[in-house]
Amino acid sequence: MAKEKTVFICQTCGYQTPKWLGRCPDCQGWGTLVEELIGEEASAQGVRQRWATEEIPCAIGEVAEEEEGMRLSTRLEEFNRVLGGGIVNGSVVLLGGDPGIGKSTLIFQCLHGLASQGRRCLYISAEESLRQTKLRAKRLGAVSDELFVAAETSLERIIQAVEEIKPLVLVIDSIQSIYTSQLGSAPGSISQVRETSGRLTYLAKGLGVATFLVGHVTKDGAIAGPRVLEHIVDTVLYMEHSADSPFRILRAVKNRFGSTNEIGVFEMKEGGLQEVINPSEIFLAERPTGTSGSAVMASMEGTRPILVEIQALVSPTAFAVPRRMSIGVDYNRLSLLVAVLEKKVGINLSHQDIFVNVAGGLRIEEPAVDLGVVVAVASSHLDKVIPPAMVVFGEVGLTGEVRGVSFGEQRIREAARMGFKECILPRSSAQGIKPPEGIELITARDLREVWERLF
Ligand code: TYD
Ligand code: MG
Question: Could you write out the three-class secondary structure of 247-283?
Fold first, then answer.
């Protein structure tokens, strides 16, 4: 009998080597290499090769087209939006997030929405018993005839079930609990995750079953194992929240069928996740008025403008090196903006601790947040209140110039809709924009012009 083939696979990044090593040469992790059996014919490589040789090349014009309207709409508009307008037939979506954040809840509500429109769905619960699943379904009011459930962890039996039931949408909750008997390693190991998701992808594309793979996330934020998965699947969604906040933000990290900037906002309630149709209202709901250190910024999340409050606290430090801390804004960006404030506006912050926070747990990555951070920090330091009906946005350059950002008009319109009366924005962003009724545009080319107006 031939000796079974084994390799050592890094459990963090998937690097393979025939010999054991103490440190992974790829991701530099210590002690991450684990010996695993490899089944030859069934390896994910095999799946990919089958894909590649399935069809002979032809002119692109001759390729049969997918019907545009073939997106399945779930009843959750926020979810549809993040997916780029609904679920694409035969697509494979990875849904990641911390344990307990509400992945199963979200996906179950989504399935219920589909099933109640008469679309057959199959939910594979690999972590919870059928009774637990039923309990959750009852709690969510998600019991319908076309929603099938099975508690199963074997890939072979799942495939069998899919072929029998022929669902339009399949959910595997979670991919880390599924195993194929062709591999010797435990469920959740890199090789199992890669192999099972490879086979499920093949199934999804072959039968036209839209498939959702639910995945857990490790402490350092990478979707466990699924780093190898990210290039196999079509879409990677990520669910996040800040400590104690009931809001859940769904973000697309990769999407072959839509924009990756879109976010969906949900609130966790007794009866499951509820859509937040008007996020600006929520994020500004508890805004204090009449205190310094608070500024409202008009941010764009995908195609949607959202107003958020930037809070800053500047206080004398007790240490030799003052502290800088930021939540929701990039730390390096904050350091840079503080340096610009010192040099270009002449504010001395070298003996001050500075804390910046985006209220409501949102994370803002676009440079338009700069002006919000700068005025919030200055407002706290000078103890001067920014007018409560004022909103700002704009990128701040190293020489103190206020640089233009895109989507000026949408941001201004959202601000006007939320009842704001003044808006400070980069001069170049204001060009050609007719402001809506009731809002005054204050353009600025550099921080000095902002200062003249504010402080
Ligand atoms: P769950 O979807 O099981 O999380 P995940 O699948 O990501 O691990 O969600 C579990 C949490 O959601 C749990 O802490 C309780 C809360 N929850 C509610 O607040 N309301 C509800 O209706 C449900 C079903 C869950
Ligand atoms: Mg779960």
Answer: EEEEEEEEECCCCCCCEEEEEEECCEEEECCCHHHHH
51-104 pLDDT, tens digit per residue, is: 444 567 888 888 777 665 578 888 898 999 899 889 998 899 999 888 888 999
The amino acid present at 418, given as its one-letter code, is M
Instruction: Name the residues around ion ligand 2, CB cutoff 5 A.
Output: 104
Instruction: State which CATH number among 3.40.50.2000, 3.40.50.720, 3.40.190.10, 3.40.50.300 fits the domain covering 72-277.
Output: 3.40.50.300
Distance CA(268)–CA(390), nearest Å, equals 31
Torsions phi, psi of 215, nearest 5? -135, 145
Rounded to an integer, the average pLDDT of 320-346 is 94
- CA pair distance 101, 240, nearest whole angstrom: 7
pTM: 0.77
Ligand 1 centroid, distance to 335 Cα (angstroms): 37
Tokens of 325: 């801390």
